[in-house]
Amino acid sequence: DTVATSRALESYRDLDPTFSSTREHQLLVDLAEAVEQGDQEVFAEKLFQYDQLSKLDKWKTTLLLRVKEGIEEKGEDFS
Length: 79
What we know:
By secondary structure, the protein is mainly α. It is 77% helix and 0% strand.
């Protein structure tokens, strides 16, 4: 839900004014854009770039793979 994602990011920026300058914020913005565009390749590339500097733990990786799979399913819907 892109509306809920935008609201959550805005809420986090309100709670911590420095959040918008963090790598984590940029990752979330990039991933949200990739999901909205239905672009699984961009999603994977942004995650890869982030993971090169800050390793994602198993829990986060599992959740993000589920999101990525959801993007693939959306893109493969030919009905």
